[in-house]
Amino acid sequence: MTLMKSWVESANSADCPFPLNNLPYGVFVTNSLEARCGVAIGDMILDLSTAEEEGLVQLAEDPVFDVPYWNDVMELGPEAWAMLRARLIELLEDGAPEQAAVAPYLVAMTDARMEMPFVVAEFTDFYSGKHHAVNIGTMFRGAQDALPSNWLHVPIGYNGRASTVVVSGTDIARPNGQTLTTGADAPAFGPSARLDFELEMGAIVGCASELGQPVTVAQADEMIFGYVLLNDWSARDIQAWEYQPLGPFQAKAFATSISPWIVTRAALEPFRTATPEREKELLPYLHEPKPMLYDIELSVLMRTKDATDTTICHTNYSEMYFSAPQQLAHHTSSGCAMTPGDLLGSGTISGPKKDQRGSLIELSWDGKEPITLEGGATRSFVEDGDTLTLLGVAKGDGFQIGFGACTATIQPAVKFP
Ligand code: CA
Question: In whole angstroms, how far apart are CA 110 and each of 30, 136, 158, 250, 261?
Fold first, then answer.
């Protein structure tokens, strides 16, 4: 597939993250406009609420774009999603007869602030990156038992917190919690000393599934509304003390950052790629009828208070062992019901090489090999004032599909009474 040309000139350059091929969905606010749904095109946002008011876009009898979330559109289902995308292409493509009617509703991105693009119904975080799981397992159990015996059979996950999923740009306070220092006989309470990021993709479930009713991998794929970048902030020291026997709890509950633009499945279609070869035959309910991953280049930038960004990781979403549709099929296999707005974290996406590791605990090998940043600072974990930025891009022939940055700065822990 090649670049689809738009009359919005800035959308036609080969390095623009938001060409007509992309059309990602977000929620924005300006000094004069209340928070509402918009679609990115070049360096502009089309105000869909006003476009809907003016009769240029109509998906349902009642307005769906005048609210600060995309859940109402999700609930209309995949046919409506396809209709919306087709209509937006019609309105924004080069030579569109409606150009003069649509142009007044374009807002410069520089005049807008992005908010959470949807109401997160529930958040489930998986652990489906094999390189990450092997690295963590090697650190804590040795290379021999690196992968738990269930790992190649089950997309392992835990139920996280929807309440603390925040949009890119939101500052994160270092969490307080219980930790046990090596050699101590009792835990202490205070700011986490081993704060980490995790590079993940988030899949947004757009369709409900019924209680008691499993869905197939193919159906699960159809249920996914789109994808975002996701940073699953993790307090390694809190996690080490609390995780047995029920898994992570407070170590992951304080914050999860996502990028502001929902990149649709339709936009990613040309970049489909298969999961790696299976090392153990999967049970039939997890079989994939077609490629279910995407070729998306991912990178992580780290910046201290006074230095420039350093790229500390470069990897690809295609490194996942289980795809989001497999995770979703597994999630419903027990009869667990899914809701529009459910968010599934992929699990940390590391590649096989050292500079492809998607977390600091891997990059610094549990703090034993600190990394060096531009300007000379070294880091084993995240310090106060540090900024982490996740980036993602799928590269086509003369165009690219960008995700927009997922960035956050760490603030000091709140003083605990
Ligand atoms: Ca995670």
Answer: 10, 41, 38, 36, 15
CA terminus-to-terminus distance, the chain: 58
- Cα–Cα distance, 42 to 19 (Å, whole number): 6
DSSP state of 258: E
For ligand 1, an ion, list residues with CB under 5 A.
Answer: 125, 198, 232
CA of 285 to the centre of ligand 1 (A): 24
| Rounded Cα gap, residues 263 and 271, in angstroms | 12
Q: Which long-range contacts does 239-248 make (Cβ < 8 Å, 24+ apart)? A: 240/179, 240/180, 241/178, 241/179, 241/180, 241/187, 242/177, 242/178, 247/158, 248/158
Annotated domain spans of the chain: 9-115, 123-411
**Vertex 153, ends 151 and 154: CA angle to 5°?**
70
Give the mean pLDDT per block of 10 residues along the chain (417 residues): 96 98 98 98 98 97 97 98 98 98 98 98 98 95 93 97 98 98 94 98 98 98 98 97 94 98 98 97 98 98 94 98 98 98 98 97 97 96 98 97 98 90
Pair 278, 377: CB distance under 8 Å? no
Structure tokens at 110: 């520089």
How many angstroms separate the alpha carbon of residue 43 from the centre of ligand 1? 32
In the CATH scheme, what is the code of domain 9-115?
2.30.30.230
91, amino acid identity:
L
**123-411, CATH topology level:** Fumarylacetoacetate hydrolase; domain 2 (3.90.850)
Catalytic residue among 132, 153, 314, 330: 132
411 Cβ contact partners less than 8 Å away, ≥ 6 residues apart: 171, 172, 173, 174, 384, 385
287 tagged catalytic: no
What are 222's two structure tokens? 């159809």
Tell me how far the alpha carbon of residue 346 lies from the centroid of ligand 1, in angstroms. Answer: 7
Centre of ligand 1 to C-alpha 89, Å, is 35
Q: What stretch of H or E contains 86?
A: helix 78-92
Q: What is the distance in A from the centroid of ligand 1 to the CA of 416? A: 26
